[in-house]
Amino acid sequence: MAIRKGCITDVYSWHCKQWISTADGKYRSHCYQYYRGTGNTTLEAEKTFKESGGQLAPYVDEVQFRFWQNFLPDSNRDEIIIGVTDMVQEGVWAAFDGAPVQNLPWNRAQPNGGRKQNCVVINAEPPGFTDGEVFRLQDKDCSEAFDGFLCYKDEMCHTFTDGSKECFWFISNNLNWDFHDANAQCAEQDGVLASVTSLSQLDFLKDAFSKFISHSGVRMTWIGVYSVGKILRHVNGNDIPFGFLGNTVITDDMCLALTDSSSGMPAITNSDSGLSSVTEHLYPCNHTSVFAGICMKNKLGFRWFTKRNFTSSTYLQNLLQIDKSKTTVEGMKTTSAYDDRTSSKSIGFVGVSVIVVVWLFVVFLDLGVRRKIPRKTKKKKGNKQIRPW
User: Fold this and answer.
1) Where are the domains of the chain?
2) Distance, CA of 190 to CA of 236 (rounded, Å)
3) Where does 5-154 sit in CATH, by number?
4) If you average pLDDT over residues 175-202, what whole number do you get?
5) How far apart are CA 140 and CA 148, in angstroms?
6) Report field, pTM of the whole predicted structure over 0.90
7) Does 221 score more than 90 pLDDT?
8) How buried is residue 80: exposed, middle or buried, by Cβ count under 10 Å (0-12/13-18/19+)?
9) Quick one: fold of 159-320?
10) Over the stretch 148-166, which tens digit does the pLDDT of each residue have?
11) What gap in Å lies between CA 165 and CA 185, rounded to an integer?
């Protein structure tokens, strides 16, 4: 089901905002667009926006909510659908991507629909057009059609050439983080430091960091690329793009960071590429003059750098070494037949047990037969000995 475009009376321009949320401390970069006069249900609107790379806008915090209020019409407006629901669990409100939502600015006596009302709208304007307060939220039936809805695109999400999508987020703290500390912080949020799978993605991360700088004041951030044995790798196992870092000389136990070159941050080594004032540099992994990291969801399960302070290239090399004496080839050299499967071991034990039981049976049988054989003795009759003729 798509938007009934014949019913649209107005499509507002995109309104973008970058901010660090007071709800969870995360940096966000969102662009919003308001559609009016559509007559769609919540699920119809969500399906359409998802197909175009966006979603219904979720509530994050009061700062974002007031930003909406500043650009949405404040008169002669019906309810506006947003991306919040408790369809999964009654009373537990979340965004359509599953992210938890808290401290919603409800209208008085709301939510009040129970299991019959699992979606959320912004009140109509002006107050009195429906029973509502100025710019507050109500729960509504997800199958009910409304005048308009609010969608958004997350500027921290990158779409690749194959159509796949990856979203990133910043972590920041006043503490000095080395590479391992930053990745451990990402791991606490079920992620890893962001990998770089293409040069266009690297430019995307650099552009996102340039916006983050203006809001946080942080001038340097770790991303998930490190060197082991003078070879660059990703912390989540992804391949390094061809030509990455150009002719940069790579030494052992170095990690990648994005820096604001205008800040005068010294670089150990650097590539020739760059976007605006943000450039990528290799630093020792224990470098601690960094206050941020860029995280992504961990999909491949390689979490080598989640332990704090002691993970190094030496640790990884020892971890990946193979003990030849424990390999199958070495085992076959010392035994005529080697099979370490559980099923094979069980069959072997049963076979040996059967042989032992049969052997014992034969031994006991033999002993019993021997006891039954009569002895040849000379018979006596009275006191006379009978002698053969």
Assistant:
1) 5-154, 159-320
2) 12
3) 3.10.100.10
4) 86
5) 14
6) no
7) yes
8) buried
9) Mannose-Binding Protein A; Chain A (3.10.100)
10) 899 998 888 887 777 777 8
11) 23
